[in-house]
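Progress note, project year one: complex with zinc ion.
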Amino acid sequence: MHLPDDPLAAAGRALRDQRAGLLAQAAALRADLAGIAAATAGADGDDEHDPEGATIAFERAQTASLLERTEARLAALDGALARLAAGRYGDCARCGRPVGAERLAARPDATTCVGCAR
Ligand SMILES: [Zn+2]
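Model obtained:
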């Protein structure tokens, strides 16, 4: 495909843009977690009876789950970029039919068509 507005090239750009944003987000979350760990390193670890300890534990759990979700999104984007490189981008992983330009525009890392995603 060598059209002026190549949809695959556009998808690749969208994927790489999202990936860069998520990488920055993941790095920030890792830094947050490191900061939380450093803040609790001096504490006596009595989370149960220290209200501030409970807050920090909650914050750490939230940050960790956010990082987990960010990394899952990154893995999905990497998969989409790999499919793009292999020439299989845009094919439904289930039925093999095209995922659809509209769906890919909304979700560049979509692996299934609307019908199979339901
Ligand atoms: Zn399908």
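The chain has a mean pLDDT of 87.
Residues 51-86 form the longest helix (36 residues).
No further modelling is planned for this target in the current period.
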